[in-house]
Fold this protein.
Amino acid sequence: MVHPTFRLTLLLILCCSLLGCDSATKPDQVFQGKTMGTVWRVTVGGLTQEQAKQLPELIQHQLDQDDQELSTWKKDSWLSRFNQNPSLSPQPVSDNVAAIISSAMNVGRATEGAMDITVGPLVNLWGFGPNALPTHTPTDQQIATAREKIGLAHLTLSETANGNFLRKDIPDLYVDLSTVGEGFAADHLARLMEQQGVRNYLVSVGGALISRGQHQAGHSWRVAVQKPTDKLNQAQVVVDLQGHGISTSGDYRNYYELDGKRISHIIDPNSGRPINHHLVSATVIATTALEADAWDTGLMVLGTDKAKALALRHHLAVYLITKQGDNFVGWASPTFKTFIVDDSDR
């Protein structure tokens, strides 16, 4: 529920040096760049010279197209034009945007509104959108006014023989897809890899990752969830992705101080205020990076107990880190445990 600029990557990609790769093994090739206010990174093995030459440009072109549809910062993007248009008539929407909105709305309903892509007015009010940071804490009236402009019930996605259409029933409904944009873009890059005949890759856009195959050393792709500390590169738990997507939403680095209080970048649509509980990180592994990206934000909004119950009810692969006093305690759902790499296997 915040633009990706404020989302730091809370996952560590375990490189060959951490996995003990043979120094004689040909290294994977790494390409990286910027998109959506964050960074992308693609690690691949076994490329031909021609593939290595063409791939970076193809990647950036794909991401630029996605950003042109999804950005709330670009006034000429499809999403910005939809938000600025007061019409209540159905608006044609691409298959790409329809897919991301459908996934986000499904998770929104499953989390009883904790994950809400219409929360933009509240995100902007608290200074985590295109608007500047507030100089004072928003008033109850300002929050109530913003909450009148949000709600998934005000958004309808229709799939017809003539295409996909998106309709809002209040003129100033503001859709913000930044919480799922990274996962969507990561999945798009994975499809691009397949189209280019690349079978071994790990791609990441911001905090969303997805992999296939193995890296050059013959090991499967592994990533680590960072410890909730300002010190970088400390692993809380290591997982083998097994060809899945993964995304982490965290509360312990992305915040600011206002009127003497810590303001989290994660906004609870139900209260209209930043979250204020002890859950500091939620990691989700799913079939796609988009699905993982949608769930992690909703779980962070819910807090530890509700997030655990939801993970068990829906058989989600979830890892939660909760602050208890001066300590941080991890909890893995039964499904998540099947991805964990034992210390003896690292």
The longest strand covers residues 279-286. Residues 1-8, 15-25 have pLDDT under 50 and may be disordered. Residues 299 and 306 are 8 Å apart (CA to CA).
